[in-house]
Amino acid sequence: MTSLLEPDQEAPTAEGPLPSIGIWWPMLEAPLQREILEHPTAPLRMSIVRRIYDLCELDDRPVPRSGVRLGPNERAYIAGWVHAVDWT
Question: Computed over its alpha carbons, how large is the radius of gyration of the chain?
């Protein structure tokens, strides 16, 4: 199994709504991480998107009003991260 996108999968845009997950995920607070982990395909709450922007120093960037979802590569990153972390 690969974590790379296959040609027929949805690819995130270069100017996607979220910065690179490798930047903000490690800094995101555990309760917010857990909320995302509970439903990784669900739209993120606006407050979580705002927190991600704050962590990446993008405070001046408006939060998209439409639902922001994690892409397949972002979900793959989180899946790999979960295996490397002890949640006890």
Answer: 13
Task: Locate 33 and state its tokens.
Answer: 């991480």
- CA proximity to 65, closest of 17, 12, 2, 7: 17
Looking at residue 17, its amino acid is P
Which residues make Cβ contacts (< 8 Å) with residue 82, sequence separation at least 6? 37
Give the model confidence (pLDDT) of 24-80 as tens digits.
999 999 999 999 999 999 999 999 999 999 999 998 888 888 889 999 999 999 999
Q: Cα separation of 47 and 40, whole Å?
A: 16
Instruction: Compute the distance between CA of residue 11 and CA of residue 86 in angstroms, rounded to an integer.
Output: 30
Residue 32: both structure tokens together: 């917010």
Greatest CA span in the chain, whole angstroms? 39
